[in-house]
Amino acid sequence: MMLLRENLTLGVKEPKLDPPEIHYSPLTEEKTYACSDCGKTYKVKSSLSNHRKWECGKEPRFKCPYCEYKAKQKVHLIRHLRKLHKVFSIDSELNKKILNNCSNDGDTVDNVDSDIKNEIKSEPSAS
């Protein structure tokens, strides 16, 4: 059901998404949020929002420059690069490879670079 809400600054009505379905895990009594389209559940409401915005029903946009892995979000590709390929710092050449493999024209090297800097802060120390 599509609800309308009034934008107070413009005085127009905008569509509002249906509220997420809230479920409770029978074993732990934890609240979870379920996607109304695919049924995938999340513990955090913002994770469900990200799922709806970037993942649900969408094809992966980011391809690994080293293997066949594809991700729907940049952060997932960055995690893959760090864990599987042991890439802890991203230079401009790798940024270009990531962008060339990305199907979204809206990203720039600067955008990817800032996302990568936020995700990969430093190489893990040897313990």
TrEMBL record:
Residues 33-60, 62-85 form the C2H2-type domain. GO terms for cellular component: nucleus. The keyword Transferase does not apply. It holds the Pfam family zf-H2C2_5. It comes from the Eukaryota. InterPro entries: ZnF_C2H2-type_TF, Znf_C2H2_sf, Znf_C2H2_type. Gene3D superfamilies: Classic Zinc Finger. GO terms for molecular function: zinc ion binding. Keywords: Metal-binding, Nucleus, Repeat, Zinc, Zinc-finger. It is found in: Nucleus. PANTHER family: TRANSCRIPTIONAL REPRESSOR CTCFL-RELATED. This is Longitudinals lacking protein, isoforms A/B/D/L-like. It comes from Diabrotica virgifera virgifera (western corn rootworm). The gene is LOC114340603.
